[in-house]
Write a structure and sequence with these properties.
- The structure is a homodimer.
- Chain A is an alpha+beta fold.
- Chain A is built from 17 helices and 17 strands.
- In chain A, the strands form 3 sheets. In chain A, strands 1, 5, 6, 7, 8, 9, 10, 11 and 12 form a 9-stranded mixed beta sheet that branches.
- Mean pLDDT of chain A is 88; it is low at 1-38 and 472-477.
């Protein structure tokens, strides 16, 4: 047993702790942690994931506040679910590639196979199924969950992101598809985007299925392979596409011009250009109606796009994607569609559902690319610089300012005035209030605008109204 | 290769997907998913974790909005970090018990040892260390992260919770300790709590260390064991405590009345009752000053409590806990303290730090126990019931209402009127607006208050002002 240390002069600066045990030390031991261990602790976040310093978090909060405002204006209510779900939830629903190669899947201490959710749709379907009878329809739900995928980080694709999920349950008609696409459009409008910045591409999984299986007479395996190939079309040359497509066909199919008919289909830009045999498919009338309602209400950048494939297996009819038209970032931003079968996978009656997901990284890239991100001031209105030893005396005045709704930091470091001013400038906070014995006695305050360098002496009321005026409302946080 | 199905009557109700492959089906196949697989998919959330349906999420949003408002009024700015951190981060810092038995720790596909964060303090210390030089001090940071611990779920302790984390960096004096305790108090005040509902218990780790090592002359191992025992004191009988305490002592220590002196210490209720030898310890003066400033500014429920031990190893001086005084829930709710050594563990110069964490489950139990949770209406102001086939015709009016800031759902189910009204009542939304051809033509709307059963006919402007008046501001969402 270690010998107890002898009594020594006391000090309050005891600031040591050790790793290996619950250890308390007197001052004499000093700071003697294990340097080797210390140096191995990285200050970097987990690969492909992000730290949000206040200036980053402000951007995210601004984006989320706009998202919440728009989706709530359409009557959607927020929900949430645990970031851990059983692996089975994704085995049944998510695309093969994601489950097999891209999930964060583990075994917990109780032997359960668990996964950090790669998407929210299975979770919300589970929740709706659990209360299938008690819930009122149309049911409108949204969430902004944190999602994880194990993939190689690249531009616009990290291992984690936050994703707005918007879903409407219980509406079988295209009113639901229309509403959800309108919300996607309204969100971009609310951020100040022009409709020339993006395009809304719409198709129908039911129509594509019919074209593949009935019109082109492909079998299931061929159809699946063709859909994957069409999904990659923009990334390969036309020649390569034709070669790969041809290789999927049987000799008999080659003789009946299947490839030529497919290529003709892929050139279709408008519903009326679809082959006559297709015109009677109900999805064609639905797509026409959908595009018409959108255009009549100002959404003039929605187009039919038969080449649109969505990665998830569960879509059943209308699917859509929003494409960024910025020349440097010409890509699919986000999308969604109808998935009428998912809730029923939990053993309850089916519920017609339409939804979409919109990731924060993609959104932020879009806003940055089109110069739509405003400059955001810190959440703090002013920092109080204490002139003299007045921390205690200043408490009542600080409380008054805060009770008036102001967000007031105070430099309680006890440093010299110029060191305090330097730190205030560095902090990015826009205003400084000087508080000394004189100001506390007279209740007149020196307010300095750090951008303009102007200084004014104000009474309490004018101080509050001046700062509250520029004060970003809490509603936007 | 499977034979391609023959052409069949087209239908848009194709709503089938299979698990095993990216498969598209024509209607004829019907709904034929694997029933056995379906039934095994549970609708329950992961054990010890919570689904938040809108009525649950509303409560959380209300709590978080109050938390944000209060901490921002003190000049704190929000940050965030990934929920995954390297395991090493906790090996170095968190209590042994938590790391060894209670973390969700795994190996990722790249062979890295990772952990779902059980607490936020190591992450924020890492972030501050990474930008030690660039950041402006005092640095005030807050976050409301989701945290995970693998433990047996019980009242007030789940496997996951959300926890407000408030930390101030760069202030070595008790001004920082005072501010952080004042924030904890201000939060409970903002929720409407009376100071008789809770007690703020304050002690000093530096003082306790000195008492254990210098005053009682215990060695490190004994001191650690005594501190763990004192932490459990309220849960065991005095007799058991004495027996366990005595067993920790050496024969020589028994002869010098160490146990008697310890028991006398544990009876101390005020700083002045501490033994004379202790009075010169700087922590005593700091505790006295801290209690005085708090009391002078209305915080009259703060007390010195030498029996207060905090679980984490990293505290260096002042520690505090907030105790719920409700007779049915008499327990520690949350707490914090000073940890001046943590940032330096990343190989940079130390930064004095004070902070606390407050969990959402504990907070909600407190608010419920003291009847402080308000009744919260849904985020939706009204649901529009469509009279006749007017979905398309109603779009412009719906857009006007939403542009006026109203949150308007619409029953687009196409059901009969009474089915729509039934669903509206079930939804919990407080108002219904009836929209038919007549209303659209005259722009006068029937507004029904579902609680009172009253119906009024209003023009657009009055409709908006009536609904906006009851409208819970977005700032509280």
């Amino acid at each position: 047993m270690a010998k107890a240390p002898k009594a020594s002069p006391v000090s309050s600066t005891t600031c040591v702790r050790l790793r290996s045990e619950f250890v308390m030390l007197g001052t004499r031991q000093g700071v003697h942690y294990n340097k080797a261990q210390v140096m191995s602790l990285s200050t970097q976040p987990y690969k492909g994931a992000r730290d949000f310093y206040p200036e980053d978090k402000r951007v995210q909060k601004y984006m989320f506040s706009v998202l919440r405002k728009v989706v709530e204006s359409f009557g959607y209510q927020e929900y949430d679910a645990p970031i851990i779900e059983p692996l089975e939830l994704y085995l049944a629903k998510t695309s093969e590639e994601i489950v097999a190669e891209q999930t964060f899947s583990f075994t917990d201490r109780g032997g359960r196979s668990i996964t950090l959710r790669p998407e929210m749709t299975p979770s919300v379907s589970r929740m709706v199924a659990a209360r299938r009878q008690e819930l009122a329809y149309p049911l409108r739900l949204y969430s902004i969950p944190n999602l994880w995928r194990y993939e190689r980080p690249q531009h616009g694709r990290l291992r984690e992101h936050w994703q707005l999920n918007v879903d409407i349950f219980g509406v079988p008609s295209i009113a639901a598809d229309h509403e959800v696409i309108l919300i996607a459009d309204s969100i971009l409008q609310a951020f100040g985007a022009k409709r020339s910045f993006y395009e809304i591409r719409i198709s129908s999984r039911a129509l594509i299925n019919w074209l593949m299986l009935e019109y082109l007479r492909l079998d299931f395996t061929q159809a699946a392979a063709f859909m994957r190939l069409i999904d990659r079309m923009a990334k390969i040359s036309q020649k390569e596409f034709v070669t790969l497509a041809d290789a999927l066909l049987s000799p008999a199919q080659r003789e009946t011009d299947v490839l030529q008919r497919l290529m003709a289909l892929l050139k279709v830009k408008r519903l009326v250009e679809l082959p006559l045999a297709t015109q009677q498919h109900p999805a064609v009338a639905e797509l026409a109606k959908l595009l018409q309602i959108l255009r009549e209400n100002g959404v003039n950048n929605a187009v039919f796009d038969l080449t649109l494939m969505r990665g998830f297996d569960y879509y059943t009819n209308i699917v859509f994607e929003i494409f960024d038209k910025h020349p440097d970032n010409n890509r699919s931003m986000f999308g969604g569609g109808r998935y009428d079968g998912l809730v029923a996978e939990f053993g309850v009656n089916p519920v017609p559902t339409v939804g979409f997901g919109m990731g924060d990284v993609t959104l932020q890239n879009f806003l940055t690319g089109h110069s739509l991100l405003p400059t955001l001031a810190p959440e703090t209105d002013a920092i109080v610089i204490l002139v003299g030893d007045v921390y205690e005396a200043a408490q009542k005045t600080l409380a008054v300012l805060r009770n008036e709704g102001l967000r007031i930091a105070v430099d309680s470091s006890g440093r010299k005035l110029d060191a305090q001013i330097k730190a205030a400038v560095k902090s990015g906070i826009l205003y400084v209030i000087f508080l000394g014995e004189h100001e506390l006695a007279t209740q007149r305050f020196k307010l300095k605008d750090l951008r303009l360098g102007e200084e004014k002496e104000l009474g309490l009321e004018r101080l509050v109204s001046k700062l509250a005026a520029r004060h970003r409302p809490a509603s936007e946080l």
